[in-house]
Amino acid sequence: MKMMWFHLMPYTELPEDFRQKHPSVWVDIHSSLFDPKRAHLMYNDFMDELEFAADCSYDAICVNEHHSNGYGLMPSPNLIASALARRTTQVPICVMGNSLALYNPPTRVAEEFAMLDVISGGRLIAGFPVGTPMDTCFAYGQNPSMLRERYLEAHDLVIKAWTEKDTFAFNGRYNQQRYVNIWPRPVQQPHPPIWIPGGGSVETWQWCAQMDYVYCYLSYYGYKAGKATMDGFWAEMARLGKDRNPYRAGFAQVVAVAESRQQALDLYTEPAEYFFNRCLHIDPRFAAPAGYSTEATQRAGLESMVKKAANAQTLIQGDKTNRGMTMADFVERGYVVIGSPDEVLEQLNALADDLHVGHLMLLMQFGNMGKDLTQYNTRVFAETVMPRLRSRFAEYEDRWWPQPMEAGERAPLPAFAPKLAAE
């Protein structure tokens, strides 16, 4: 099993009365809540945390793309990944990912991902999300009924830009380019491994099977709620004649570990309640625009994580206090894997048994968690839990993992030593 350290980069200082006074953390969140000088410190803490995870020997470090929100301060994950490519040496960098339908032209993604792969020496995992409706349809104004078609065409252009050796013309419905000839080209051939994050769409499952891509279920609500979706995914893989290699899939899970269960509850209750009650405070009017979900997905009774989050907010708002759920709710429902190392190990073994996923994306910084606590959570897991999970799925080959350059072929990186401003 691969254990990957995933950072959302949430804004950590939303006010205590945020739920009561603001309708949504996404799209129309008020700009007065954002303090650039405080965010300067947040970003640098977040970067320290990602580099710390790399030093703790996690299998990969992960970043992603969102817009107009306080849930995740990464409108350009490629900027973060470029810094990580220079400040780390061995760890794969998973950009999960670039929302293809938002780029005009999509060759920008082909170029920037190729740059990241070259700078890092072939350590890139390329994620291609369709994107949440808040990001794509509301923040960036895309027509939801055309979004998937635009996405698929952009994907085809990026793949051809990576693999076609000669200059070519591309004449699609949404993209017309007379000369496509990207420089640089990626180190990994024919291209970096491609992973597709999703929330439970039948078409996404089928497309991942057709293209032999990794399907990543990015759930907010833990492995208990994720079982129905992953059962559906594996049933569809069986119907399509695909094997049950667990590395076909990934899953995101909030994890909080400490020396004892009570210590974990004491340490992580505040950041967990901040994350679920403020960072996921999504107005239902932004969660499911007409045309975003396909007919087949609706007939299958599948709901995206975003829509579930918005529906949860509606239920919570039925309570006049509108305070949200508590840590007890999160633990009971499996939203958070929490406890001592032995207890966390037991829960993650249950996750591996129930979901059959080989790529576990760990959310170990969540909500308003500070750098010290994040590094504590990261270190304790790496020392006490991760070694005991490594042997899971050892009988399978991970064909979807980066193939970097040999160490002796890579550029030596000097120790980081910032100059004094006066110099």
Automatic annotation (TrEMBL):
Tell whether Oxidoreductase is among the UniProt keywords.
yes
Keywords attached to this Swiss-Prot or TrEMBL record, sorted alphabetically, are: Oxidoreductase
Q: Please give the Gene3D superfamilies that the UniProt record associates with this protein.
A: Luciferase-like domain
Q: Where is the Luciferase-like domain?
A: 44-353
Would the keyword Transferase turn up in this protein's UniProt record? no
For this protein, the record's InterPro entries field holds:
Bact_Lucif_Oxidored (IPR050766), Luciferase-like_dom (IPR011251), Luciferase-like_sf (IPR036661)
A GO MF label: oxidoreductase activity
Pfam families (UniProt xref) = Bac_luciferase (PF00296)
Judging by the UniProt lineage, the source's domain of life is Bacteria
Q: What is its EC number?
A: 1.-.-.-
Protein's name according to its UniProt entry: LLM class flavin-dependent oxidoreductase
